[in-house]
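Structure first, sequence second, as always.
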């Protein structure tokens, strides 16, 4: 019996440690220095991390950001970008709530801060700060509890 319990707890542990050091300032500085390449790397890692953390529970798979950025987004004239950001924000928010964390994040943050907030210029920065914080907390919880 003891081996069955050990097998169950071992299977719920994370295979590797996910990044918990995302930050808005780092995102802005590295995106400027690399002429936008870091933003692709950043969002690609977000899409991969969300698939690692969430897929076991919700059974969904988020499209890799590079596929969206280079192929699907231009073909749909940017509409797929809006849908992708809505869905990934919603998945992150749902996973945070499922894990019993108190941080609030979701698709409404994308629409209110990134889209409508662009009218006051600082809105997208607030959205990316909230995204970084949500990913850091979700990944930290995953690294600890699986």
């Amino acid at each position: 019996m003891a081996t069955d319990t050990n097998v169950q707890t071992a299977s719920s542990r994370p295979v590797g440690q996910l990044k918990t050091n995302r930050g808005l300032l780092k995102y802005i500085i590295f995106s400027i220095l690399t002429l936008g390449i870091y933003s692709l790397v950043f969002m690609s890692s977000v899409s991969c991390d969300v698939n690692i953390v969430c897929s076991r529970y919700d059974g969904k798979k988020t499209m890799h950001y590079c596929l969206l950025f280079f192929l699907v987004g231009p073909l749909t004239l940017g509409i797929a970008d809006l849908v992708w950001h809505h869905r990934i924000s919603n998945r992150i928010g749902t996973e945070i709530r499922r894990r019993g964390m108190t941080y609030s994040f979701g698709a409404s943050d994308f629409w209110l801060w990134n889209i409508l907030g662009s009218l006051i210029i600082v809105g997208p920065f607030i959205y990316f700060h909230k995204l970084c914080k949500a990913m850091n907390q979700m990944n930290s919880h995953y690294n600890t509890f699986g």
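Margin note: Confidence is low (pLDDT under 50) at residues 1-8.
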